[in-house]
Design a protein that fits this description.
Elements (H helix, E strand, L loop, with lengths): L1 H16 L1 H4 L8 H28 L3 H30 L4 H24 L6 E3 L5 E3 L1 H27 L3 H25 L5 H50 L10 H17 L6 E7 L2 H8 L1 H18 L4 E4 L4 E6 L1 H5 L1 H17 L5 E7 L8 H20 L5
Antiparallel strand pairs: 1-2, 3-5, 3-6, 4-5
Helix pairs in contact: 1-3, 1-8, 3-4, 4-5, 4-6, 5-6, 6-7, 7-8, 10-11
Length: 403
């Protein structure tokens, strides 16, 4: 029964090391991955026939042993067929030799299928005598020699690709070629020792090498590529965020830009149309005396004056977005806590402006208007009322403005 134990160990080793490929089909995405998964299943089918071969042989169940041996040869041929498919797919070269290997693998599989059918009636592959002793036929040696030849050719092909390449992928081509040579070595010895599980050992070693040095290496490279792509995406997102921030921020004052204001107005109009807008107010601010400062002290001083005006507004309307919508005009859309305290905030703001007049500081006029449900069908109507109140306040301030 030791013969079956080798097959069981090899099967467990394959399933454990390749569980994500064998048990989860979603990993088979590319054509090469599908070929690799198919190859693993052919190896599993071989292990199963090999395990039962050892069991039936130990129990002297000749009839079942004969049937299992038929499937045994079919599994071996299918393994060679799937191996040539996998290697040519992995090397990904379009040439006549690659086509030859694929066709040769298919022809070998079909030939062995025919020979196993013939063997049912004439012992060309193998037979068992009356004592249950296994005897190999001529066709058995021929099929093994053909297998060795195909493995040798696929290995030479992979090694040739390796020597003609000069990158990290070429190292995996070398491993693929060496894996084929490992299988070739054990199959060659199997010719002389048919009762030893050398074929299974060759498969086990080759599959382990492939998994460890090829598949895992591919996944590590893929992981690194994903990390690079992720970092690139993060930089891209950061750049977009920075660009968006610049576009939505007024360069001089740090207030919201006209673009940000336009988008907010669009959102409000939509909320009004949907009947979702309830508590909101619009405050319009205009800086008094800016033209005089520009004319007498220059635009640099004028810019400083605008900055001071924005600071005065934002210091009081702390929880409200403030937008610079013109050279000396600001708009604040008041909601949330500031909406509930809008009367007190406007009173505080006007009080501060009157103090500024006394201290010869920045002067800003403000007008505020609430959204009236059922009356206001757009943001523009709220703005117009606030704008009118702002101009009224502007005239009041000019009566006491020092400018």
């Amino acid at each position: 029964m030791y013969y079956s134990l080798i097959g069981i160990l090899a099967l467990l080793n394959l399933v454990i090391t390749n569980h994500d490929v064998v048990l989860v089909g979603k990993t088979s995405v590319t054509h090469t991955q599908k070929c690799y998964r198919f190859f693993l299943f052919t190896v599993i089918s071989y292990y199963i026939t090999d395990i039962f071969w050892g069991v039936f042989e130990a129990l002297s169940m000749t009839d079942l042993l004969f049937v299992d041996t038929e499937f045994y040869f079919l599994a071996m041929a299918l393994g060679i067929f799937s191996w040539t498919r996998y290697v040519t797919a992995y090397l990904n070269r379009t040439n006549d030799f690659s086509k030859f290997l694929r066709y040769a693998g298919s022809a070998f599989w079909m030939a062995v299928t025919v020979l196993t059918l013939i063997n049912l009636f004439s012992p060309v592959m193998f037979w068992f005598d009356s004592d249950g002793i296994y005897h190999p036929g001529v066709a058995r040696y021929i099929t093994l020699i053909v297998q060795i030849s195909l493995l040798f050719l696929t290995s030479c092909y992979a090694l040739r690709v390796f020597f003609k390449s000069a990158d990290m992928v070429s190292c995996r081509h070398l491993i693929v070629g060496l894996s084929g040579l490992v299988m070739l070595f054990f199959i060659f010895i199997q010719i002389f020792y048919p009762y030893l599980p050398l074929y299974a050992i060759g498969y086990m070693m080759s599959c382990s090498i492939l998994r460890t040095l090829v598949v895992e290496n591919e996944r590590e490279e893929y992981r690194k590529e994903l990390e690079v792509a992720l970092r690139r995406e993060q930089h891209h997102v950061q750049a977009l965020h920075t660009a968006r921030k610049l576009a939505y921020t007024d360069a001089l004052t740090g207030a919201g830009s006209t673009l940000a204001y336009a988008e907010r107005v669009k959102e409000i109009d939509k909320s009004i149309a949907d009947g979702a807008l309830i508590n909101i107010a619009v405050a319009v601010f205009d800086v008094n005396g800016l033209k005089q400062i520009n004319d007498t002290q220059g635009h640099v001083k004028g810019d400083e004056y605008i900055i001071d005006a924005y600071k005065t507004i934002s210091d009081i309307f702390v929880h409200t977005s403030v937008y610079r919508v013109g050279g000396d005009e600001f708009v604040s859309i008041i909601d949330g806590d500031d909406y509930n305290n809008r009367t007190a905030l406007i009173k505080l703001f006007n009080s501060q402006i009157e103090k500024n007049i006394e201290s010869n500081s920045v002067v800003v006029a403000v007008g505020i208007s609430d959204f009236v449900p059922g009356k206001d069908n757009s943001f523009k109507r709220i703005f117009q009322r606030a704008d009118q109140l702002m101009y009224k306040r502007k005239k009041e301030l000019k009566n006491i403005d020092l400018f």
